[in-house]
Amino acid sequence: MDPVFGQARLDDVDELLALYRRIYGDTYPLPFATDPAAMSALIGSDEAFWLTVRSGVAGPLVGAMLATVDPSDRLAKVQGMVVAPESRGSGIANRLVATMAEGLLEDGRADSIYGTARTTSTAPQRTHLRNGFHALGMFPNLHKTQRAETMLLVARYREGVLAQRHPVERVPRALRRLVDIIDKTIGMPAYPSFEVESCVDAAPGAGVEIVDAPLFVLRHFEREIVDPVRRFYPFHDPNILIADTGGAYEVYAHLNRVDGYCTLLGATPGPMSVAPHLDRLIDRLTRIGAHYVETLVPLHCFDELSALLACGFLPAALYPAMRAGGGLFHDYVVMARTLQPLDFRGLAIDAAFQPFVEQYIDLWKQRFLDTEGVFR
C-alpha cells in the first residue's frame, strides 16, 4: 500500500508515542517523544513542522519526522525521525527528509535547517547528504547511553544564504584544519590568517555554587543577557546558573541529567570574565553529572576561542551562515569538551564526515596525550 504523508494531528499523539517508544524505548532524552503534553503543544504550532506517514489513507502510522523553528533567528532543527522496522528500505526516510527540508526552506520560515545523524549506521547520514545537506562536523561522546554515542552535524540552506557571509580576518591556528574542510566543501567568504592563540592566565577564585531553579534561572538570563549575539543558542534554555562565590562571573547553562549533555549559553559580565576560571567551572559541572560540555562561538571571536582551547575545548564542527547580523550571516564554531576518554569503537561514518573526525582526534591527542601516548 502506498505511503500517505501528512501533518501530525492531535489525534495522532497516542500512535506517535507508541511508535517512538517502539523504536527508542522509554529512555529517549527529548520530551517530544516521551511526553504526550509536549507532543500536543507542538502539533499545529508555528514553531513546529511535524510530518507523519501512514500505510495507506487509513493505515497505521509507520513514520514521522519533527523539526522545530526558531522564528527570531530563522533557524530550524530536525528533532527526530522514526520509521517502523517493517517500512524501512521503502524510501520513506528519504521522502521525509526531502519534504521536511523543502517545506521549511521554501515557505520562508527558515534560512537553514540542521540536524544530527547517528553513527550506528551510515544510512541516515547518506539520506541527509542525498537531500542537499552538508556535512559540518561531529559531537564526540555526545549522549551517554550504555556507552557514549558520537553524533554528526548536517545542515541545508535556503538558496543564496551561503553567499551572504561575513568574512573573518583571523582565526586561532588550532582551527585551521576545520576551516580548511569547510573551505574545500562549502567555501569561505575569505580565507583568514591563522595565528597563535592569545593567552589567558588562570586566576585564583573563590568557590563555585550552582543555582538549580530552572524558572528563576531563565528569568535571570533574559534580564541579564541582553546582547542578542551573546544569548544565541538555538532551541536551548538555561536551567542552571553556575556562579563564582567571589562575584567574578555567572554562567548560564543547560544540563540534561539523563544523558550528561551540557551547553554553556551565556555569561556575565561577559564570556572573557569566565576565561581565567574555566577549569574550576568544568570541574564543578563534572561533579553534578555533566560528561560532555559544548558552547557556540562566532568564528570571529578570536580571544574567546583561544580561552576555550586553553581549557581543553576543541573545535568539533563549523556551521557556516548560522545566524544573521549586520546584513550578512555569521559562521559559528561548536567548541566541545568531552569529560571522558574518546570511544569511537564501531562507528559507522560516511566519507564526508571522516575529515572532521580525523581533525578532532588529532587535536585531542595533541592536547591530552604526550609524545609517548600517555595521558597528561
Please provide a written account of the structure.
The chain has 376 residues and is an alpha+beta fold. It has 2 domains: 3-163, Gcn5-related N-acetyltransferase (GNAT) (Aminopeptidase, 3-Layer(aba) Sandwich), CATH 3.40.630.30; 187-350, Gcn5-related N-acetyltransferase (GNAT) (Aminopeptidase), CATH 3.40.630.30. Helices cover 27% and strands 32% of the residues. The chain has 10 helices and 16 strands. The strands form 3 sheets. Strands 1-2-3-4-5-7-6 form a 7-stranded mixed beta sheet. A 7-stranded mixed beta sheet has the order 10-11-12-13-14-16-15, with helices on both faces. A two-stranded parallel sheet has the order 8-9. A hairpin with a 3-residue loop joins strand 6 (134-144) and strand 7. Helix 3 (92-106) packs across helix 4 (123-130). The protein is globular, with a radius of gyration of 21 Å. The chain starts with a strand and ends in an 8-residue tail after the last helix. The model has no long low-confidence stretch (mean pLDDT 88).
